[in-house]
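Why run this: before we spend reagent on co-expression, it is cheaper to look at a predicted model of the complex and decide which construct boundaries make sense. The entries below are exactly what would go into the expression plan.
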Amino acid sequence: MSALLRDKRLPVLVTAILFIAMFAGGASRYQNQNFLSVQVIANLFIDNGYLLVAAIGATFVILTGGIDLSVGSIVGFTTMLTAWLVQQQHWPVLVVIPLVLAVGCLGGYLMGYVIHYFEIQPFIVTLAGLFLFRGLCLVISKESISIDDRTISKLALYQVQLPGGTFLSLGAVTSLVFLAAAAFVLHYTTFGRRVYAIGGNEQSALLMGVPVARTKVAVYTISGFCSALAGLLFTLYIQSGDPLHAVGLELDAIAAVVIGGTLLTGGAGYVVGTMLGVLVIGLIKTIISYEGTLSSWWIKVLTGALLLAFILLQRVIGSRGRAAPLPAR
Amino acid sequence: MTNLDWRAATRHRLFWPVAVLVALLLINVPFTPGFFAIHVRAGHLYGSLVNILIFSAPIVLVALGMTLVIATGGIDLSVGAVLAIAGAASCLYISKETDQNSLSGVLIAVAIGLGAGLVCGAWNGWLVAGRGVQPIVATLILMVAGRGVAQLITSGQIITINSNTPFGVIGGYWLGFPFSVLLIAVMVTLAVVLTRRTALGLLIESVGGNAEASRLVGIRARRIKLMAYIFCGLCAALAGLINSSNLSAADSNNAGLWIELDAILAVVIGGTSLLGGRFYLGGTVIGALIIETLQNTIFTIGVPTQTNLVFKAVMVIFVFLLQSPAFRAKVFRRRARPSAPAVADAAPPATLTTSEVGR
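The model came back. Tokens follow.
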């Protein structure tokens, strides 16, 4: 029992069990509405691909013990910039995509630079990022810009057929490929080990010769890149740019990371857990839409309740074999 | 001699916040004729300054509670949601009343709103002090779920009420004075007296400096933290009542949206360290006034309102860069040398306390 409680994979396991239980519950409750199909799971990825990518970025940051509040704003800004460039400036999509990704990277890099070299808390720096990018959205336009560019529509409607008649959207496939890449980087590269080392104890990591500065700045750059990519997927999903797109997405992303079992103090967690966290949040949305009569506000309340449950679970696990948690940074 | 006085003045921790506030107010003068004029019209106080004070009331209140929470080494992200819950709960009660102008009904509604704030604060405090959850995370729960709860209270609608005399007074005028300004004066005085005329402030700072060490010397660290979160919840609820009274409505979606960020910003501009252990209530009030004046200034000088957020972001970055010792060391490297003793002055007490605790 104590061996089980000490296992770092336990939170991921709990999330997986929760997901299966919720899915089974939904399947038995909505038997007549065809809930039990592979397409329902595929739809989870189609509808939440952008959240998955954003949450992967948040996982990197949280693993180092930091936090990134600018996710939602960068996603919103990316939709806005893409829509403006494609729709009103008539730039080719193939130029716009690398450009907005570079903008996201630059934003993340600047925030990481300020956080590390000027020793300001990540919370505050990314908060400023949140204001800045949301403000820049409004500078581009106060109105929403809908996109009817042919390339974008083609990309948005493209379906990847899977055996058994199910399909995935391009966004969902991108997010899954990205997930695999992130898992590889975190577990099989030096960079990944450095991320975990810094989250475990930055001081020790520094003394061990880990290039802390480079790694931390890189992590925020990755988060900026993920936010921009998530913004592109969101643009494909919703085919418009709006200054109010993805307000509060950072909270969903952080919630998914925590529900996925990553410690907010850093140093422990898996991107696969993050994927399960995103799926659980997505499943709450699906079940509430199947239920039909429930107010969509229950999504927030239930997400909050799950967040609470998993944080208390982290405390139970964390209090064994671990020193007192590090103060929030 | 005067040179020395000037130097001492610029080193005072409130010097820069006050200077910024004064500068912002002066910027307004060419754009608004009679900016500093305050006159009585129809028995009410009128003027741009009065308006700024009235509109800053919610931020001042929320920032006041936030200061004490941050002083204990915590943070409260849920204030916006608590504000919405309190407004929703009291407006719901009033809207169900047959006579919306009855004083007793409004008093009960106010009590319900404040009670909601108390419960939310106690919940946050229990998670942080009782369960030992990181403050950012603990209050994130209520931040996410709280707005949902507020929406459920109002069934997703905007509740409008029609109570001009008793409830409308909270955000309006009372005997010719803006009631909300009186309210913040009372709350600020109360907080200052409680923390600076009793040992409470010292206890809060010691808990924020090192909770474990404070517990070992016999301070009830958990109770102090719990009280700070409850006070913060109450302040947020009060801000919610002011907000609802201003609008005669409860809008769960937009009430207090992002006020937690404004409040944290106000606290930090006022010189309180986010790491806890030191707090300045006066600085917080000035910080909150700066934010409100900035918004007002952006509006009056005719900057398009959509650049409001960019302005604010640039200001956040600017303020924090100036407060960062690492940034000052890098940028003002040459100029830093003559004032190096000032830095040395600040450092020894901190190291002394840690070494004392170590023994």
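The radius of gyration of chain A is 20 Å. Residues 320-329 of chain A have pLDDT under 50 and may be disordered. Bring this page to Monday's planning discussion.
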